[in-house]
Every structure is written in C-alpha cells, then in structure tokens.
Design brief:
Mean pLDDT: 97
Oligomer: single chain
Helix content: 40-55%
Shape: globular
Length: about 325
Amino acid sequence: MVTLNSVTGPIPSDQLGFTLMHEHVMVGASGLYTSYPDLLGSNRQERAIASLKIAKEEGIDSIIDATTFDLGRHPELLTAVSEASGVNIINATGWWLDVPRFLNGVSANQMAREFVRDIEQGFRGTDIKAGILKCAADFEGVTTSLEVMARAVARAHNETGLNIMVHSYPTGQVARRQIKIFKQEGVDLTKVKIDHSNDTTDLEYLKWILDQGCYLGLDRYPGRLVSPHSRTVTLKKLIDDGYADRLCPSHDCICLAVLKENADGTLPEEHEFKRNNLHEYLYIKREVIPDLKELGVQDRVIESLFVDNPRRFFEGSK
C-alpha cells in the first residue's frame, strides 16, 4: 500500500476502489474557468457534482483527472466536486499539447522543478497536490517542445517516484519514441501508462508497449476512430494473451467544456463531447462490461481491470 495525493488530501491506495484511470471533470484552456467561465455554461460546479454523484451511486469510487495546466486545470473546482460527490479525484501535473511560444527555450530541468513543486507543495496558491505526472504527443509526433516536457516529466518522476500517464497517438506508433525518451532518462517503465491505446486494433504494437513493462490505457470509450465493440474485442484479445494485469480501461470523458453557439445564437444544453457519450463516466459500467461478459470474460477478471490494476500501477507491485 502507498499513499496517493488526491485533491482532498492523502489517501491510501487500497481505498481507490473501482477506478477510471483517464477522465476529465473540465477541459478548456489555462485560466478559462476563472476568466471566462460563462463559456462553460451556467451552474458549472453543480453540473459537475451532479455527474460525479451519479457515477458514485453506480459504483465509481475514484477517477484520475488528466487535466494539466494547459488544459485549464482548476484544482479548487476538483476539490469541491470530489467533496460533494464522494468520488476520489487524483489530478495530474505535467503538460498536454499546447506549448506556447513564450516557453521556447525553457529547459527540461526548469519544467521538472515546477512539476515537483506541484507534487510536493501543491498547485500555486493552494495546498492541493498533484498525484500523477502527464506528458503528451499526438499525430505530429514528439516535437521539440513536447520532448522538453516529456524529459521534464521523466526527471520529476525520477525525483519523486510519481507515476506517469502518457497521451499518445497509436496510429502513428508515437509511444515508440516516447518510451525511448523514458529509457534514456532512466524512468521505471512499470510506472508508465500509455494512454488512448484503444484508438488502434494493432495488437502487435500494443503488445510491444506492454512488453516494455508499461501499463496500457484503453481509455477512449465510446471513441470515434474505432467502434466501441472493436475496442472491447481488442481488450478481450489482450486479456486472452496474458496481459490482463496491466490493462486500464477508461473513457477520457469530459464533463464541462466550452458550449459553442448554435446558428441562431442560442447555446446548446450540452457540449459536443457529452453528445457523443450521454452515459459520461458510466459508459463502461452500462455498455462495456456487459459486452465483456458476453465475450466470456469472467467477473473476477473484470473487477481486476478496475480495482486491482489501478492499485497495482500506483503501488508498483507485479
């Protein structure tokens, strides 16, 4: 057992329970929640609390919130939502894809120091501490600026021991470069999770990632590039091939996002992400788990995907 930084304070890893390993309460842009909150619609906090309360009532105990600074992280919102809903929320430090020009030339060591501060002291102006690190690369590959962030995250990991979640682009097999960087930096790959991996059905590539020691985030449900059922078939094949202990299904759900005006100037009731997933944090409970059972996956294995694997990932146990 280890102690994890949640947004409401330290929690023991054995209290994670049923855990979704890549979700978002809110995404936007840095400072948007405080500077332009109306873009997110009215009753923002109340809507998020209501969504997480429903999730808690149907058995979701914890989520990993992957919202970094450049995605609009607002720690106080996460704390309020966690306290009111009863869902544990572990928030990330690190960086997503939006590296502005004014950070050109900033070193990996500089950024690593900032990330370590988020972990050890708390996000600036708060005592809310990060519980996981994050870096990213997408279809353009690991650009120069994203490599700086990846190395910064790796060095913060080496100093703190904190786990790393990685936004990746499986169609381009971008994790091969990301993992090479981690190896160069001396990262413990058993504490790395390569996310969005069910945007492909390429089992050879997915098994290569797992064979490096990493966990696999199969966290795009229902998703768009691959059908939900095909994603679940890929998950079943990986289970059958002996990788069940390092697979982490999730949604990449977004509860609050910018509402874009209709043609008549009115605002829609829901943002576009929710229109693609009306179940929000419960799609897996309501759709994926029944599909897994239909495919012959036993209840004990299903429980391990959402209870044992997240705990094992953070504890570092085999």
